[in-house]
Amino acid sequence: MTSRVLFLMVPLAVAACRPAEPMKPAPIGPFEGVQDIGSTGLAGTTVLGQDPDVVELTGAGANMWGTEDAFRFAWKKVGGDFVLRARGSFPEAGGHEHRKFGVLLRTGLGADDATAYAAVHGDGLAALQYRLESGGETAEIRVDGFESGMHAPDVVQIERSGSTVTASFARFGEPLRSVRLDDFPTGDSLYVGLFVCSHDATRLETARFSQVRFVKPAEPGFTPYEDFLGSRLEILDVSSGDRAIVLSDPGSIQAPNWTPDGAALIFNRDGLLWRFDLAKGETSRIDTDFATANNNDHVLSFDGSMLAISHHAEDADGQSIVYTVPVTGGIPKRVTEFGPSYLHGWSPDGKHLVYTALRGGDYDVYRIPVEGGAETRLTDSPGLDDGPEYTPDGEWIWFNSVRSGTMQLWRMRATGADAQRMTESATNDWFPHISPDGRWVAYLAYGPDVAPSEHPFYRHVTLNLVPADGSAAPRVIAYVYGGQGTINVPSWSPDSKRLAFVSNSGEF
After folding, report:
1. What is the torsion angle, in degrees rounded to the nearest 10, for the CA atoms of residue 428, residue 430, residue 436 and residue 437?
2. What is the C-alpha to C-alpha distance for residues 503 and 482, in angstroms, rounded to an integer?
3. Nearest-CA neighbor of 297 among 257, 365, 343, 254?
4. Residue 198: which of 34, 72, 106 has the closest Cα?
5. What CATH class does 33-215 carry?
6. Within 13 Å, how many C-alpha atoms sit on residue 25's CB side?
7. Which end of the chain, C or N, has fewer beta carbons within 10 A?
């Protein structure tokens, strides 16, 4: 979605030296203030562009090193743990090899305050740079594998967890690489935001930031499926990686599913199904009668007329049972006799549903006629097989399986024959979703810190993309704080150009 173009210029008077903390810093976008820190030599400016998460910072400053800094800073005061991520770049070539941009946390707005930041230099150097006490010397932890030009990092992230600060970097499309500092001074709140430094007090440099995301992560001790963070319903342009938040909710939105006409997204909230009209920006409930404890694995028929749902039925001892219901609402019709059965796919010809079910102590993929009847077991490997979904031609079913030791993507014929492994990655890969044109498969990837058979809420995850024919390696298309509920169901736009997904954050 595009928004009204808004340009906001925030100039500061030119001076050789200025106060470290203006009396009334100007707010901009998601930030409370924007200003020059230290003696920058030239006054900086800031522009808020088309989208509220796009910011251009222009600033000077001799350096951010030694015992004090000089740079341009857009900040928000944040207490407790947090994550700040952005995609950044220098739009213009040239400049000092050590000009730098990045994401930063700071104990104050003085030039010599304690600080830690993820910095990308003009020559491609990526490092966590830090000063542990006011007036102290700056040190750094470098991240190997980057260089100037086309392989400099453009994704930067900084995270605070207690006294631990983690800086992460990536060239968009690649996994994040991280380094950690374990002894940053704690405090009630920090100044957190974006920065640019020209490394030359006589020259201004501009850094452009997009996809700016502040995240308040889950607190220690939260109870899964009882405690929830807020939700951001986002739309991602798959080719460019640009993304926009179209709906924010303090509760738990999960599993957006795009309608075939492209007009709406259907998602789960509080066990109910809701329709979000993209043109009007309005949400309305879909009446599913007695089915008020629905999982986040609803799917639409290919013609868009029907929904299949998984509801925890009272007459099945609370187990998940598969039903169908008109997309406009109505009384659900039971399909599976036994539970638990977790729905995931509808055949293109409208005749069958595929789902994951626990039978005989093991989870496998099953197929059943839409009208109900006998179910057919399609997989029989030990361990979890999950997330089955048909290709648009109906010939293949993609799914995720732990049969190789980690969770990876597989495909098999619609009959269950000829199973083929489709990813061999270091991540645990979940919920393959095939684009309507049949060319691409998007999926959710967890890191090795998550057990292969688990897909929990509130973790650092990525959305990845791989050609459906396996002709190229997967690439990252979004860096997300989310997990369970992010992309459990088919969420491609009808034109195969965009994806809908959910990211999460608590309130600041």
Report:
1. 20
2. 5
3. 343
4. 72
5. mainly beta
6. 23
7. N
Specify the DSSP class assigned to residue 448: T
- Dihedral, CA of residue 286, residue 288, residue 291 and residue 292, to nearest 10: 30
Cα Rg for the chain, rounded, in angstroms?
25
Tokens 């190997």 sit on residue: 144
Q: How confident is the model at residue 28 (pLDDT cuts 50, 70, 90)?
A: confident
Q: What is the mean pLDDT of residues 446-471?
A: 96
Neighbouring CB atoms inside 10 A of 430's CB total 25
* 478 neighbors 462 (Cβ within 8 angstroms): yes
Degrees to nearest 5, angle at CA 70 with 156 and 40: 125
Partners of residue 320 on adjacent β-strands:
312
> Pick from 70, 28, 73, 33: which is nearest to 47 by CA?
28
Q: How confident is the model at residue 19 (pLDDT cuts 50, 70, 90)?
A: very low
Q: Which of 74, 50, 54, 70 is nearest to 62 (CA)?
A: 70
Written as one letter, the residue type at 287 is: D
Q: Are 118 and 168 in contact (CB under 8 A)?
A: yes
pLDDT, one tens digit per residue, over 281-303 is 999 999 999 999 999 999 999 99
Distances (CA, A) of 80 to 32, 77, 272, 305: 17, 10, 33, 47
User: For position 50, what pLDDT does the model report?
Assistant: 66
CA–CA separation, 452 vs 425, rounded Å? Answer: 12
Question: CATH 2.60.120.200 in the chain, residues?
Answer: 33-215
CA-CA distance, 296 to 121, in Å (whole number)? 42
Single-letter amino acid, residue 506: G
With pLDDT > 70 as the criterion, what percentage of the chain qualifies? 94
Question: Could you report the per-residue pLDDT of 238-293, keeping only the tens digit for each?
Answer: 999 999 999 999 999 999 999 999 999 999 999 999 999 999 999 999 999 999 99
Report DSSP state, residue 132. Answer: S
pLDDT in tens, 165-189: 999 999 999 999 999 999 998 778 9
* pLDDT for residue 395: 98
- CATH 2.120.10.30 maps onto the chain at 230-505
Domain 230-505 in CATH: superfamily?
A: TolB, C-terminal domain (2.120.10.30)
Q: Is the pLDDT of residue 10 over 50?
A: no
